[in-house]
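agent: user wants the full assembly modeled, not chains individually. Plan: 1) parse entity lines 2) check alphabet per entity 3) run joint structure prediction 4) return tokens. Steps 1-2 passed, two entities, 928 residues total. Proceeding.
--- entities ---
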Amino acid sequence: MSINKASHYLVIENLTKRFGEFVALQDINLNINESEFVCFLGPSGCGKTTLLRAIAGLDLQSSGNIFQAGKDISVLPPSGRDFGIVFQSYALFPNLTVAKNVSYGLENAKIPKDQINKRVNELLEMVGLPEKANAYPANLSGGQQQRIALARALATSPSLLLLDEPLSALDAKVRVFLRHEIKQLQRKLGVTTIMVTHDQEEALTMADRIVVMKQGVIEQIGSPNEIYQQPKSVFVADFIGTMNFFEAQVMADNQIKIGELQFEHDSNIDTVVGERVTAAVRPEEFVISQQVESSEHKIEATIREIEFLGSLVRLRLSSKQMQAKSFIMNIEERMFRANALDEGDTISLSVITSPRLYPHD
Amino acid sequence: MAEAIAKSGAELKQKLSRDDVLMRGLIAVVGLYLLVTLVLPLYAMLSKSFKDHDGNFIGLANYIEYFSTPALSASIVNSLFIASITTFITLTLAFGLAYGLMRSNMPFKAFFKIVAMVPILVPSLLPGIALVYLFGRQGFMNWALFGHDIYGPIGIVIAEVFFTLPHALIILTTAFSISDARLYEAAQVLNASKFKIFWTVTLPGARYGVISAAFVVFTLAITDFGAPKVIGGDFNVLATDIYKQVIGQQNFEMGAVVSVVLLIPAALAFFVDRIVQKKQVALLTSRAVAYEPKPNKLFDHCMLAYAILFSVFILGMIAVCQYAALVKFYPYNLSLSLKNYNFDLMDGGGWAAYWNSLKMAGLTAVIGTCIIFVGAYVVEKVRGFTQGRMLFQFLAMLPMAVPGLVLGLAYIFFFNSPANPLNTLYHTMAILVISTITHFYTVSHLTATTALKQMDSEFEDVSASLKQPVFKMFRQVTVPVSMPAILDISIYLFVNAMTTVSAVVFLYGPDTNLASVAVLNMDDAGDIAPAAAMGMMIFYTAAGVKLLHYFSTLGLYKSTQRWRSKS
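--- prediction returned ---
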């Protein structure tokens, strides 16, 4: 145990939070490394914000411990912990100028004024808003306010940065831009960062590791790639990206049957021959197969609907063979044009990776 | 289940930061203030009602005596009668004006709104004095009563209507202002008649406002002391009974009994109103669209005529008082002079009473605003401490349920007791200020709480994460952002401290006479004209302060609240 605490920057042990009868977090165990960017991802009500607020000391957990840099901070008040925080609302002080907001945490008898000014300019430079020093928050756009809130949180050089849905109040374009900016800044400063979000795209693009949560428990912890490619549960598979689910039956150790078709599988779970399971395939894992190529798991499917997404085209298909009324595949727009596809066409597909299996529920 | 209980028993406790300790300490201090200036006096009064003159416990004997003395218990019916009639008339009149202000396109709305607030600026004794001049035995309009006597229920009701109108109007205009225009559009699209829209959209939308206004007016009317004192004649009500028992007969125990009797309807009305107000909140969603009345010549002219009549009533009463204050010797010498303002020639405290009132109102405004705003801030923003907060909130709401006279009498019992180390406060300026702050605590507390709730609750979290003391947050952000509300509170306290009679009438001493009490005493002594003059002094002062407030708020927005505007 003590080895863990030493080697990880933040250690959360058996953390539980109850609001009366309601259990918001149940027995959470999580280790976060120094300089890591971790996202807590999940639908609303999954407990992600509650966990963040417990780490900050804003809402004390009912039981369990938190260690930061080897120190037990479980019951310390927020002011006794080392962190900076950015809220969804930014919580900028409306009557103070941008410079005053940023210097709020620096104003302290020990730091000389010119040094504070220097630091404020440095921070404003860092978030790209040096010209806004004398503006009031009401005069800034949402994205600018967000960056000022970030500068204010980083002013005291905390070793832990907490971001509570920092981008969700912004327009789509600004959001994409700031995603990149925050990630760059985090890399440069090397500050350990925890971000709460319900936006899977945000988590996938920004995080080193993602903690997927559901109803107060951690469903899966892993890199964006792991979470996307090897979701551990139907919930994660469904929540991250788009996933097609099929009814399947285990035929042999590495064989399953979907409808009339046989597929090989990775046997990522223990299965018993004859067992009913759920098989999962991503839309981009279907490809249109050439007529010449003969494959034993070639799928006949009919195009029901065509949805144009720009560089991709999304086809809604049905397949008698797979006993599937509706599933989705994505193909590149170039391929779509080359094949001159239309609604009602029947196409022949193959699957490029073996389906993931989940126990039937 | 047993395990769950065992687990929750082991709930973690957060270490308290210095700010946590400070905030909890301040809640305790302000809570203690309310305990000493409200709960303990009320307890002293309650226990007094079960004792005889010599302080022996005699159970319900005082109550039995009260209810078996028709001369005393008849006042219950009288009080309920006056309060009910007043509530009905005030609500009808105020509803009409509120409807005109919010639902018509009549001109001069701002003017009518200001006029309707005038009664707040005078003691409730003043409308009584005006009525004496209008309809008294030598009144210049007493033919209009067809031989009825103004001294009695008629006079009391008219005076109470005058006194309660602004309070009803404030609540009703708010109720109308939160109506959703989309409902009216939907009703019009469905071809509903005007009459049907009124019954199905307007009235249901305003119903909580109407109920709330009814309770407020009823409570004000049943607890008011000024109007029945001046114009009540032989018609006894509970409030005047308390005064007579205590001041006239020195029967403190019976005064305590009447106080308890008066406390019941007032407290009941208060608690029902709180429940109703909680329901009101859900009515207005953030998507509601403000209603914009469409011009309608006939309707707008009718509403204008109504508003003019309304203003004539209110300004007429004030004008009569002003006239009374200036006439040399009514009705024998109608030439005008300022001799009635020569208060030093009369009993009642003279000009010193006026200066005392100014001083008392100023101190109440400054000290009261500090205590109330700090109290509201710490109770709103403290981390955890749920039970302490709930107890404090209860204490802060309690003053509203306690009529001023009851509070004043309770102070006599508590602060004048030889056993109380605080008894040196009796008759001092300090006790007048304390009683007034406590008397008007609730509305000020609610104003502060509303303003604080509008502020992002995450400010304190950010401040704590930046390791800054909460005091810095309070000074640099909370107070500047809340300045409009803080000014509102201080003006509210100042104006009420100038006009209140009820609590202070039992507490002033020879050196701490007040203007409002002087009005009462001069009227009692038959010096009605000087009483009117002193009443007008209160009016000028309160109106002046209101004007000052208005312009300073304007200035404040221009200079220090620059951050509010987007530019």
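agent: reporting back. Chain B has 23 helices and two strands. Strands of chain B lie at 327-329, 333-336.
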